[in-house]
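Hey, I was hoping to borrow your eyes for a little while. For a while now I've been wondering how a particular protein folds. The fold is given in discrete form, as structure tokens running alongside the sequence. Could you read through the record and tell me how the tokens relate to the sequence? Take your time with it, there's no hurry, and the full record follows here:
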Amino acid sequence: MSDEEHHFESKADAGASKTYPQQAGTIRKNGYIVIKGRPCKVVEVSTSKTGKHGHAKCHFVAIDIFTAKKLEDIVPSSHNCDVSLLTENGNTKDDLRLPTDDNLLTQIKDGFAEGKDLVVSVMSAMGEEQICGLKDIGPK
């Protein structure tokens, strides 16, 4: 045995703290899931019956919340999936002030009035946050 102390410093971030495991069979439409390393909003879930030699499977169709690209995944319903954390406790952030930019404000208000699925981009610095962009991520 050695009396030396070893100190390891890691600058890598595996992203593990940005997700938590959730059983695939419990993830529902309008929930969030990570597919191919991308945070997505689930737009469709279908579950197959248990097969002769295996598990029931969940088929997820989801939209990447940043790129609006459609992604799909099939996972056994009893297995865990990564679910993205949107805040420290896993909820969507809903305490943002509305933007002062009149054009952006009108787009947000009109989008919510029409029932659209919207994702806003937030700029954060020195303890302040501001909505700076908007994307329609889902069909209505």
Remarks:
- The mean pLDDT is 79.
- The helical segments are 102-113.
- The longest strand covers residues 38-47.
